[in-house]
């Protein structure tokens, strides 16, 4: 606990990884809820409307807890990484500011209107609200990945007196490392939501629920989402390798040339990433392979509606598979971020130079506090999701009509 750099890095890894768990489900589930409500609005289907309320409630729970983790996580930039803000803050901070405006003002406002607008707003207006929420969620993810893309492949800047100045906004926003990662995250979120929806539906169908029609349709929706998303997510991931840092694969000739260049520019040092990066890559590919197998099975079985309702072995398989997209996305994040080390901004700013000038004791206290807070938030989110998912549609309070106030006796003066 006496190495502030290691503590700060592990702290950010734990908090950012925990936050990403919320983001993955939020992105995908917002889209599926919006599509389900669109179907309910166009067709007038009572089942589709009940599906919207049920899955919408789970979405709201995940969003509410997840946004708290995002707020807490961003405190670390000023707390532990002031060196980064000092050197590249003008470039790195611009997309983060846009994300704050989109996520904490636009998205939260429209989500609040959607939550409290049931049976109060015109149905088309209410439908438009959830689509605005879904769109702003994707804008938020895009701006975050623009900021991260700059760390991976810095573009659109020049160094003036040791400080990065933004010179080309278009290059920053169109950075291939950001755009390809955005496509990867979009389909990764849909894949996560598809497995989540199929797992919850499988649980209720396995128990021979009375809501068989609702959960059979939900199972179909989840599986179709998995089938549609499982191939694009690997395509966007694979195309990114043409922009990956050469040092992510230390045995290559390109890596040796890159290391030699860094040693000439910055002096002797270890410019190859830790072995954890390759472990993350292996886990990511393995998890995707399992998901692809499940998607293939689902594609074969989807035409058989009664099988979706009666196939208990498949229900168990879907419940067991729900961690797979999380494993794949967290492992991919480890490969992306750990593989950039020892750089905070690749080829520009070392991680050790981005660290705040704070004593090890202060970083240790910060590490303990942040870790405990995030562990509690993840546990609360998991508990709430499991609790309300198990209760089923009958326990949904989202959009439920207010209970009428009991009649009060009329008091009359006695004579």
Automatic annotation (TrEMBL):
It is found in: Cell membrane. The keyword Metal-binding applies. InterPro entries: Cyt-d_ubiquinol_oxidase_su_1 (IPR002585). It comes from the Bacteria. The keyword S-adenosyl-L-methionine does not apply. It is a multi-pass membrane protein. Its main location: membrane. The chain crosses the membrane at residues 12-35, 56-79, 91-116, 128-151, 178-200, 221-243, 283-304, 316-335, 360-384. Keywords: Cell membrane, Electron transport, Heme, Iron, Membrane, Metal-binding, Transmembrane, Transmembrane helix, Transport. Belongs to the cytochrome ubiquinol oxidase subunit 1 family. This is Cytochrome ubiquinol oxidase subunit I. It comes from Actinomadura miaoliensis.
């Amino acid at each position: 606990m006496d190495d502030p750099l290691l503590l700060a890095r592990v702290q950010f890894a734990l908090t950012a990884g925990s936050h990403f768990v919320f983001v993955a489900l939020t992105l995908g589930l917002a889209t599926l809820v919006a599509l389900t409500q669109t179907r309910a609005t166009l067709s007038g289907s009572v089942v589709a409307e009940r599906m919207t309320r049920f899955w919408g409630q789970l979405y709201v729970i995940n969003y509410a807890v997840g946004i708290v983790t995002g707020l807490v996580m961003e405190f670390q930039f000023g707390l532990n990484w002031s060196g980064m803000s000092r050197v590249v803050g003008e470039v790195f901070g611009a997309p983060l500011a846009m994300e704050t405006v989109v996520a904490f003002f636009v998205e939260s406002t429209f989500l609040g209107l959607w939550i409290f607008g049931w049976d109060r707003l015109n149905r088309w207006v209410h439908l438009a609200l959830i689509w605005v929420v879904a769109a702003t969620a994707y804008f938020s993810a895009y701006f975050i990945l623009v900021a991260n893309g700059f760390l991976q492949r810095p573009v659109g800047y020049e160094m003036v007196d040791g400080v990065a100045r933004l010179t080309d906004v278009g290059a920053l926003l169109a950075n291939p490392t950001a755009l390809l990662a955005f496509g990867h995250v979009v389909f990764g979120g849909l894949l996560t939501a598809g497995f989540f929806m199929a797992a919850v539906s499988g649980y209720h169908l396995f128990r021979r629920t009375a809501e068989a029609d609702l959960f059979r349709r939900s199972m179909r929706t989840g599986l179709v989402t998995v089938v549609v998303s499982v191939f694009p997510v690997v395509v966007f991931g694979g195309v990114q390798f043409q922009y990956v840092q050469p040092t992510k694969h230390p045995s290559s000739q390109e890596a040796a040339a890159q290391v030699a260049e860094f040693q000439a520019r910055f002096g002797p040092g270890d410019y190859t990433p830790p072995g954890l990066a390759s472990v993350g890559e292996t886990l990511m590919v393995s998890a995707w392979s399992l998901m692809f197998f499940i998607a293939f099975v689902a594609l074969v079985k989807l035409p058989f509606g009664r099988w979706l309702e009666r196939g208990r072995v498949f229900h168990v398989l879907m419940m067991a598979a729900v961690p797979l997209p999380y494993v794949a996305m967290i492992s991919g994040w480890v490969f992306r971020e750990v593989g950039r080390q020892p750089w905070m901004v690749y080829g520009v700013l070392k991680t050790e130079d981005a660290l705040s000038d704070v004593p090890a004791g202060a970083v240790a206290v910060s590490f303990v506090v942040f870790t405990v807070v995030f562990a509690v938030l993840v546990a609360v989110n998991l508990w709430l999701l499991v609790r309300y998912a198990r209760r089923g549609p009958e326990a949904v309070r989202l959009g439920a009509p207010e209970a009428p106030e009991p009649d009060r006796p009329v008091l009359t003066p006695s004579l």
